[in-house]
Amino acid sequence: MRVLVVGSGGREHALVWKIAQSPRVSALYAAPGNPGMAAHATLVPLQVGDLDGLVAFARREAIDLVVVGPEVPLVAGLVDRLGDAGVLAFGPTAAAAELEGSKAFAKEIMAAAGIPTAAYGAFTELEPALAWARARDGQVVVKADGLAAGKGVVVCGSTAEAEQALREIMVDRVHGGAGARVVVEERLSGPEASCIGITDGQTVRMLPPAQDHKRIFDHDRGPNTGGMGAFCPTPKLDAAALEEVRRTVLEPTVREMARRGRPFRGALYAGLMLTPKGPRVLEFNARLGDPETQPILMRVASDLVPLLVASARGALADVPLTIDPRAAVGVVLAAEGYPGQVTTGDEIRGAERERSPGVQVFHAATRRDAAGRLVTAGGRVLTVCALGDGLADAAGRAYGAVAHLAFRGMQFRRDIGASA
Predict the structure, then answer these.
(1) Residue 133 and residue 286: Cα distance in Å, rounded?
(2) Phi then psi for 353, rounded to 5 degrees?
(3) Which helix (H) or strand (E) covers residue 178, if one does?
């Protein structure tokens, strides 16, 4: 098969790394990719928003499967465009990807499908949103309705914090058009878990559950980020609990989407809060998570390509999925200033040294400068992943690899996986 992976982040590097191991793949491309992916795939200078260019490339190069990593091209309809051109693609159509493209729509689906979630209100005007938050003493979560690169969620602990978040999103438009509407939810408590199912629109196959670390600093302090690290599995969800999530969350969602004429194929991500009253859905994503994908794919022992193809073709039921029994931990190395204004162009040292077995460094925001040096190119720069005999062993190996990496202003959490 000839395969194209669309995207340039750590999730896409992990996908490229895993797909390259398949004996079924004869040619592998990444658009636009990053320097880490260049070890496994031919890089194509096309941005994820260039739908015309991506479709034309896929047709010209006789691509058999396109794997779309990030949410923006999914919501924009890349899978639809590829389908119209006769190219098989892994990922949902634009109509199905609205599960991530609109948080209000996702809550509507949850309500229709009877999926447990937090009480909420959706608002396009500031004053009603403020009133909803005040009635709950500001113990709410404020979310920009549209795509905001994982940064459009503010967890509030007071009325003042809720008012500030609502004004920044709805009035100051810190997330642009994504904040034209907001969802305000009751604030839940409990550990979180990321549950991802691969689906063909009917069958749902569960990947092992993971836990992300959203806050920038140790012990879950500081502002939310796109994710500072993840571990897999999470002991908060055993096999029976994961089966319950499949039965009570993902399968009803897939059925409701099909009922509405929006069949969902691809990776369906449910972010859960494990409350004293049981799991509650915080959000849906229409793709694999980042940074969860990196440690999850470290544990997938079987060939990933047949699973992706079967999802795209609607024939998932009999495809094997074998999981390595070891645990995996991934630590994100971020640039100075992240999740705010970041500096870029700093040389990265140690990223290209040889690793011990079971350790991988996935590139997220890297590039080559004019002198050919590997330098930083964004907020989350690298994800360092390791397999181990249990989470403590995996974390020790991951942090051991982190010690050999450096760039100016490098920041990372030192407690990834410690809560488990």
Answers:
(1) 28
(2) -80, 160
(3) none
Partners of 330 in beta bridges: 230, 385
- The DSSP bridge pattern shows strands 380-388 and 327-334 to be antiparallel
Tell me if residue 395 falls in helix, strand or coil.
helix
- 336-384 pLDDT, tens per residue? 999 999 999 999 999 988 888 999 999 999 999 999 999 999 999 999 9
Distance (Å, whole) CA 190 – CA 390: 23
- Say which residue the tokens 């590139």 belong to: 363
Predicted structure pTM score: 0.94
Joined tokens for residue 367 = 């590039």
Q: Where are the beta strands (DSSP E) in 166-258?
A: 182-186, 192-199, 204-206, 211-212, 215-217, 221-224, 229-232
- Judged against a pLDDT cut of 90, whether residue 106 lies above it is answered with yes
**CA–CA dist 203, 372 (Å, integer):** 46
Determine the 3-state secondary structure of 193 from DSSP. strand
Residue 148 has pLDDT above 90, yes or no: no
215 by DSSP, 3-state: which? Answer: strand
Integer Cα distance of 17 and 360 in angstroms: 10
Taken in order of first residue, the domains within the chain and their CATH numbers are: 2-90 (3.40.50.20), 125-180 (3.30.1490.20), 192-313 (3.30.470.20), 327-402 (3.90.600.10)
pLDDT higher than 90, residue 230: yes
Joined tokens for residue 385? 């992943």
* Terminal Cα distance for the chain, rounded: 40
In 3D, which of 90, 58, 63, 95 has the Cα closest to residue 76? 95
Supply the pLDDT for residue 354.
83
When pLDDT is averaged across residues 38-54 and rounded to a whole number, the result is 97
Q: What is the rounded CA–CA span in Å between residue 206 and residue 256?
A: 18
Bond into 23 cis (ω within 30): no
Q: What share of the chain is helix, strand, coil (3-state, %, to 5)?
A: 30, 25, 40
Report in angstroms the alpha-carbon separations of 314 from 201, 295, 311, 391, 394: 7, 26, 5, 35, 35
Statement: residue 12 has pLDDT above 90: yes
Q: Are 205 and 199 in contact (CB under 8 A)?
A: yes
CA gap 25, 403 in Å, rounded: 34
On the 0-12 / 13-18 / 19+ scale of CB atoms within 10 A, 74 is buried
- Are 178 and 147 a contacting pair, CB within 8 Å? yes
